[in-house]
Amino acid sequence: MPATPRWSPAVRNVHARHLLAPAESLAGRLDHLGGPDDELWPAPVWWPLRLTGAAGPGPAPGASGGHGPIRYAVEEYQPGQRVRFRFTPAVGLDGYHEFTLEPLPPADDGTPRCRLSHVIRARLVRRRTLVLWPLLIRPLHDALLEDLLDRAEQVATGRVARPARWSPWVRLCRALLRRQGLL
Taking the complete model, does pTM exceed 0.70, yes or no? Predict the structure, then answer.
């Protein structure tokens, strides 16, 4: 039985937050993603993001690592603006995920604004991932990313207007993973 299905469904998963803050308030923090001074990644509640093998403290090209069982390597990096990670083949996703930070036009009252977003563009290329993506990976990923965006909002503005809430399914999945020592 082949490991790769005959067809590979596409995944496009987007999370974004518009923040009433200048992009500069998060640019340096994006540059430390996965490093020892990472203020954005929602650890210890979630698996920590760890990157190794790069010359700098964060997501420089050549760095690799991941969070929990999800492994990837830095494919592209624009300081303070964007970092793209390429999934390793064993993950069962053929594609990338990336964070982008972009300034937006000021609000009507002149308040600076920016948008922090995370996008996955990939194909599900393993039978196991075809099952795990909708049942486990996507719900946990979505909750983790909303927690990260809450942290970004807290760092940039000093508060979180509408904190994310985990669904009952996410709480159940996390409890099962904790019970098995996987979280």
Answer: yes
List, in sequence order, every residue forming a beta bridge with 124; answer none if it has no partner.
93
Q: Provide the β-strand partners of residue 103.
A: 114
**pLDDT digits over 91-116, tens only?**
899 999 999 999 999 999 999 999 99
Location of structure tokens 């210890």: 44
C-beta separation of 73 from 84 below 8 A: no
Please spell the DSSP secondary structure of the chain, one letter per residue. --SS-SS--EEEEEEEEEESS-THHHHHHHTTTTSTT-SSS-TTTSPPEEEESSSSSS--TT-EEEETTEEEEEEEEETTTEEEEEEPGGGSEEEEEEEEEEEEPPPTTS--EEEEEEEEEEEE-SHHHHHHIIIIIHHHHHHHHHHHHHHHHHHHHSS-SS-----HHHHHHHHHHHHTT--
